[in-house]
Amino acid sequence: MLSNIGISLLVLVLILSFLIIYNASLDLKISSQSVKKNIYKLSLFQITFIILSFFTLIIGFINSDFSLINVYENSHTAKPLFYKIAGTWGNHEGSLLLWVNILVIFSYLFLVFNRNHDKKFRLYTLIFQNILILGFLFFLLLNSNPFNSIYPIPLEGLGLNPILQDPALAIHPPLLYVGFVGCSIYFSAAMASLLSDYGGKLFAQSIKTWVKISWCFQTLGIIVGSIWAYYELGWGGFWFWDPVENASLLPWFAITALMHSLIVLEKRNTLYAWAIILCLLTFILSVTGTFLVRSGILNSVHTFASDPSRGIYILSFLSFMIFSALTIFFKKYKKENYNFNLKSKEIFILANNWFMAFFLVTVLIGMLYPIFLDVLINEKISVGPPFFNIVIIPLVIPFMILMAVGPKFGWIKSKNKIFYKALFLILVAGVINLFIFYFFGKYSLLSNLIFIAAIFLILHSLLDFKNFINNKNKLELPRIISHLGFGLLVFFIGINHQFSLEEDFNLKVGEVKKTSAYVIDFEDISIEEGKNYKAIIGNFKLTNLKNNIVQYLNPEIRIYPNPETLTYEAAIKTKINSDLYLTMSNVSRSEYYNIKFQKKPFMIWIWISALMITFGGFVQLTLKKNEN
Amino acid sequence: MKISFTKIIILSFAIFILGIFWQGLKTNKNYDTKNLVGSKISNFQLSEINNHQQYISEENLKKNNYTLINFFASWCAPCRTEHKYLLNLSNSKKEIKIIGINFKDKKINANNFLSELGNPYDFVGKDIDGKTSILFGIYGIPESILINNELIVIKKIIGPIDEIQFNEILKLIQ
Fold first, then answer.
1. Residue A568: left (phi > 0), alpha (psi -120 to 50), or beta?
2. What is the mean pLDDT of residues A285-306?
3. Fewer C-beta neighbours within 10 Å, C or N terminus of chain B?
4. Given A299, A318, A371, which is nearest B24 (Cβ)?
C-alpha cells in the first residue's frame, strides 16, 4: 500500500521534472519579463509531491510497516519513536530520498525568491537544477528505491545499528544534507549564469543567501558529527582525519572560499570567473564525497552496505556533471584583469581563498593518495593525522593573522595605521603566551606560534566587538562572531592538545589504580535494563590527588538484542575547565576490563567556539531579512 | 572553443581522477579467502581435544597424500548438514585423512556432537578462542580446506559441503 503510494509520488515528480524542463525551454524563447505562471504551478506540485513521498516513508517507519524492505532492514517495533523517525534517513535509500527532497526544495525556493533577477538566468537555473533532480531521481527509482516491497511480510524488522541511536546522529545527516545538497542550487545558478551572461554583481546577489544557508548547515552538520564521535564512539577524540570526515571538509573549504570571494564580486564586481569555479567545485566535491562513501571505495563508519552498481551510477553522473561544467565554463570563460592594491581588503579576501585552496588540496591529496596507490600498485596505506598535522597546522598561523588584520582594511586602498595597531596586538599576544608557557607547561616553538596567532586573532576580534558596541554597525557582527569563534577554536584545541592526560590500563572489580593525578577505584558493576538494551554499568570512584575531590563515573557497555551488538558508552563529566572521560570495555574471557581514562581540558569550549563560527553565519541570515 | 594548454591539463586531470575511481570500483575491496587456493599452509600446531599431550603439526600432514581440514562446532547448524558427506568421505577408503578443528566450542558439547552424529575425523584439534582458525584464513564456519602432501591448498570450501562439492573433492583426490 505505502509502497504503491510512494512509487507513484516519485514517478509524478519525475514527470513534473520533464514538464518543467520542457516548459522552461519554451519560455526561454519568449521575450517577456516574467516567468510563465504554469512553471510556478508545476514547481509547486513538484515540491508538494516530493515532500509527501518523504512523509510516506516516515509513516512507514513510524507504523513499522515491514512490507517495505527498507523499513524491515532498518527498523524494529521495539525502537523508541524518535529513532524510528530518524531511521528514515539512517540508511542509503532513505537518505537518498532526503537528498532529492532538498534538491527540489531549493529549486522551488530559488525560483520563488529571486523574482527580481533576470528571467533567462532563472529559467536556466531551473533547467539545470531539474537535470540534477532527474539524475538522482532515476538513481533512486532504478537502483535504490526506498519503497520496494517485500512479500511475505516479515513480522519483525532487523533494527537500526545501535551506534546510530543517538540524538546528535539523528540530526547530523539532515543538517549535512541541507548543507551539501543545498550547494546544488548555485551549481545550477553558475551554469545558468555562464549561459545567460548574467554575471558580476547581480549574480553574486542572487546566490549569496543560498551560499550562506548551505554554509551554516554544513558547518553545523560537521560540528554535530564531531560531537557524536566524541560522545558515542568512545575513542576520546573529536576529529580523526577519517576519510569521510575529510570528504565533508572538502566542500566546506570550497564554500568558505566562495562565501568570501562573493563579497568581492558584489562590492567590486571582479573575481567572477573564480567565484563560478568555486560554485561548480563545491557541489562537485559534495557529490564526489557521496560517491566515495556510498560506493564502498572508502571504508568507515559511514559506509552503508556497499553495492558496486551504486558506485557506477553515481560516478557516471559525477563524470557527466564535471564534463558538462568544464565544457560550458571553457566555452564562456572571459579573461578578467585583476588589479588589486596590496593594502586593500580584496587582497586579504584573496589570501583567504589561497589558504582555503591549499587546505583543500592537502586534504584531497591525503584522501585520494591511498585510493590511487591501492588501485595503481595494489599497495594499502593509510594517511592519518601526522600528515595533516604537519602540512596544515603551520599554515594556520599566517592564516589566523591575516584573518585578524584583513577585515580592518578598506576597499581599494588603506592607510598604514592598521599595521602599527596589529604590531602592538602581536606583542600583547606574545606576552599572554609567555604567561601560559611559564605557568602551565612547556611546549614546542610551533605551539608557541599557534598560541600567539590565535590570541592575536581573539584580541583583534574582541576589539572589533568593542567598536561594534560603539558604532552599532550590524553588518560587521557576523564576521566578528565567526572569526572570534575560529580564534577560540584553535586556541582551545591547542590547549586541549598540550595539556591532556591519558591513561590506558586493565582493572577488575575491587581493584584500585593510581595515576599521576588521580586514584581510580573500580568499586562494582551493576546491570540495568534500558528501553531496548541491557547495560552493564561500571561504578568508578575518582579521587583527585591535588585537592581530594571525589567524583563518580559510570561508563556502560550496552548490549542491544536486535541484532546483538555491543556498544561502549563513555562516562563523561563535563566541567567548565575540563572533561573527565572514562570508557570500559570487556576483555574476552577474563574478569578484567580495559579502562581508558582521559582528562581533557576545555573540551566544552571547543564545542562552544565551533558553534560560535556557525552562529555568526546564522546571525548574518537574520540580518539579511531585517535589511529587506 | 580555443584549445589551450591549461584546458588540456585540467581535462586530463579530471579524466585521470575519474579513471582511478572507475578502476577502484572494479577491484574487490573485500578480503576474500578463496584467494588462499595455491598458497602453502605453515606454522601450525594443534592439541587434541581430549588429550593435551597429543599434538598435530605440519610434519604429520606431509605424510598424507591428501588432507581435508574441516572447521566445525557443535553450535553450528550447517555443520550438521555437511556431516554425512564427511562420514562418506572417511568411509570411502580413499587416500585422504580428515582433520577436524573444533572452533570456539565446549569440550563436552563437541564430544556429544560427535557421538550423536558419528566421528569422521582422524584427528580432532581444539581451537577454543578461534585464533588458529584465523591463521588458516577462516572467517566463519563451516569451512573446509583440502591440501596435498606438499601442504598446498588445492580447494577451499566456504559454507557446508554439499553433493556437488563432495563429488569435486572425490575427483581431485583420485
1. beta
2. 74
3. C
4. A371
